[in-house]
UniProtKB/TrEMBL annotation:
Residues 32-275 form the Radical SAM core domain. InterPro entries: Aldolase_TIM, rSAM, rSAM_sf. Signal peptide: none annotated. The keyword Transmembrane does not apply. Its cofactor is [4Fe-4S] cluster. This is Radical SAM protein. Pathway: Cofactor biosynthesis; Fe-Mo cofactor biosynthesis. Belongs to the radical SAM superfamily. NifB family. It comes from Ignisphaera aggregans. Coiled coil: none annotated.
Length: 276
């Protein structure tokens, strides 16, 4: 099974594919910029390239094509995000898609450019799986100068080591680095959100995670939590077919409603049979 050394090598390889230095400026590949309804409306830049390959990832195909997208400077990224945000009256800008903490120099340079160009109420959300930030506290410290407008959203891949392994195909012990990232971020005085894929967590694993977060973060841990319901895009269901991973409830984008129990089973049967 894939372990920590493998993940580090994958991350280094992806960085070489999706980033380029021009003098001291770090360019990164982006495949699109868009408006989103999340956070009450937000401007999003979707980066190319990730160090994980989660079964339910909605952009896995893009992240597999590492030479796709367009190389952009931090200033170009900030200009595009601010244009979308101000045109739509949004106050939230964010990086999503792949893993933004790869090519970390680019991320810091984006934040530095935004610091000088943002309006007072504009907020930046950095969405990450947390592996890099769990491994390297020194990188978290580099984010501290931007804490007045930065929120780091750590997307947990399950509620336990077992969940993590089933979702990512990686050794379950690496789940600890996601939890460590949350600790590092909060102890550094940076705002943090913790996204939990409740669709794929059992009651037991969810309860154990809540207890662990309470012990590590304190009584206000509930303020950081963001329940995440799996969206059953056909491409996501096809990737999950035959992998033994099935949500107990999820959002069906076709019927536009929450599916539970037998509804989920029937949806998987229908989509997976088309793949056979």
């Amino acid at each position: 099974m894939i372990g920590l050394d493998d993940i580090l090598r994958i991350g280094e390889w992806v960085e070489k594919e999706v980033c380029l230095y021009e003098n001291d400026v770090c360019l990164r590949r982006y495949y699109r910029f868009r408006s989103s309804r999340h956070y009450g409306g937000s401007a999003v830049g979707d980066v190319v390239g990730c160090n994980l390959s989660c079964l339910y990832c909605w952009c896995w195909r893009i992240n597999s094509a590492h030479r796709g997208g367009t190389l952009l400077s931090p200033e170009e990224v900030v200009t595009e995000l601010l244009s979308i945000a101000r045109h739509n009256g949004y106050r939230v800008l964010r990086l999503s898609g792949g893993e933004p903490t790869l090519c970390f120099d680019h991320t810091v340079q984006v934040l530095e450019a935004l610091k000088h160009l943002r309006h007072r109420k504009e907020v930046f959300v950095l969405e990450t799986n947390g592996i890099v930030l769990g491994l390297r506290r020194d990188l978290v410290s580099m984010l501290r100068p931007y804490s007045s407008f930065l929120v780091v959203r750590v997307s947990l891949k399950g509620c336990s080591e077992g969940d993590f392994s089933r979702i990512t195909g990686i050794e379950g012990s690496l789940f600890r680095y996601q939890i460590k990232a949350v600790e590092n971020i909060i102890s550094s005085g940076i705002s943090c959100r913790v996204a939990i894929p409740v669709s794929l967590c059992s009651r037991e694993s969810a309860a154990e995670l809540m207890e662990e977060l309470s012990n590590k973060i304190g009584g206000r841990f509930i303020d950081f939590l963001e329940p995440e319901v799996l969206v059953l895009y056909p491409s996501v269901v096809r990737r999950m077919c035959g992998k033994g991973l099935k949500p107990w409830m999820a959002f069906d984008p076709v019927s536009k409603k929450i599916a539970k129990g037998e509804e989920v089973v029937e949806l998987f049967k229908r989509v997976c049979s088309q793949q056979d």
